[in-house]
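Dear colleague,

Following up on yesterday's call, I've attached the two folding results inline so they're easy to grep. Please treat them as preliminary; we haven't cross-checked anything against experimental data yet. The first protein's sequence and structure tokens come first.
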Amino acid sequence: MRSSHLTLVERFFHCRAVTAITVNRSVGQLRKLPLTLRTLGSVLVFITLSTTAQTTYTWTGAISTAWNNNFNWLPATGFPNGADTAVVLLTALNQPLLDANRSVNSLTITSGTLNLNAFTLNVTGTSNFIGGAVNNGTLAPNVAAGAITFAGTTFSCAINGTTDIVYFNGSVFNGPVTLTKTNTGNNYSIGGNTFNDSLTLTNTAGRQYMYYTLNDVYNGNVVLNSSGTSGGIWLGQNTGSGTLASGMTLSIGGGGFSIGSLVIGRLIQLGATPQSIITTGTSTLHVRDGSVFNGALTGSAPGLYIQNTTFNANATFIKTGNTNEYSSGGCVFNGTTEFSNSGIGFLALNNTGVDTFNGDVKFNSSGIRWIPFRL
């Protein structure tokens, strides 16, 4: 950050005749205060704060790799920190190397490589990751108002934080990603991402859409949470698809999934790892739209829809809530399948289409409603 307080301080100390400072105490009232060490300190703080400005710095790497060297940035009057914006635009000879745990208001990466050097970079405002790479440390969004957009950058670092809005629009994540979305609106992530480590996604308001139009690849475990006023997490709502790698799981995290919809659409599971997806509260679980599960699946939720999905191993479904759900059908069950209803609402199957059962099927009802089913 830049400040002009040094020039003002020099002028202040060169005014030898000054023995008091006049300050505005209230409207129309002036008062002279003795020039004591305390009042002088207050004035210096006031001057510093009132003349500090937010600056946008663009990396040039003209001198070295040091983040905290003014002459590696344009303008060369400082380096990004606090309320400033950092922009890494060009593939410079010297790439930026973070020197300590730091915070910036905004960060834009379009090319080049930012080495976090095992430190944490906190980002507090709207930031765009369009290309290039971020490596070796932790990127920590803490965005109360603004958006984080991942749209082309490769991350070989951990990402851990909270953001108002988040878009996953085509990046590669080689480290763990843990993010909480807080905005009341619906965020549409178009997809095109590869997650080579775990993804833990928490939604506390509005809906979070993933792989809306493109394909996501999940080579790590996927952990989902929904709370507050969340509308849930929607996977593959439009034309996109997702792939869950062999040995990986899709599950609910420690924060729980107690509100909104968990929509699992067009998700293809590779391998036969068992999956357990258990939601609570007033939430609804949708398994649909061409998804394929090759491992045994247990799905339990207050509201439950099962349609247009292929289950190649045993499947167990438990409805626990009070609402009525009418699944359209179109499923293929190739293992033993069991349906249980412990709530007071209907769990209706193949309401308009046809389900195919190539294994045994069992029905249980401990609630006051049965399970409507057509053969």
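Below is the second protein, in the same order (sequence, then structure):
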Amino acid sequence: MPTERTTTIMVYKFDELDDSAKEHVLDKWREHEDYGYISDCIQDDFKEYLTERGLPTDSLEWSVSWSQGPSPVSFNGTIDVEKFLRFHKRWAAYRMLWTFKPQAWIASNRDYHISVEASCVYDDMENWTAKHEAKVDELQEELQECVYEIAQDMYYNAQREIEYQVSDEVITETILTNEYEFDAEGN
């Protein structure tokens, strides 16, 4: 016949643990925590960031691994050229293209290589000149450079956010806020 026993375990708040036990708690937390919420937050931040700049968000993909190809962020679609240039305070620089409705597209591949194509809608061919064509080329080059820089900024922002979320300070704050308890070894 089974014998009933009662076991008493001493439990401690995080700040009552010794340094070794605290380190054990932090290591275990990082090992077992599901960080999917960080990815969701970063994805939402990226979409807001891109939308503000007139860039597409529908096929947004990104990675923050330490070995990257040319760009760690990939997105495809139509650029809202006017919004993009106004955000970067460059709309006036392309005044000669306004009546020709400048358009641009981003195409990315699975290696995160980003290319930008720009053109204009010119129904009135007699007013279209080599200067306009040169200005479209300039626009395409500027968009390409800006989009690449934006992708790099997004990558570094994501890295910083992940490093912050897995820092001792954030994990400790979460543990203290939720009043988690541990045995003397930090289990």
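For the second protein, one point worth flagging: The two ends are 32 Å apart (CA to CA).

Best wishes,
A.L.
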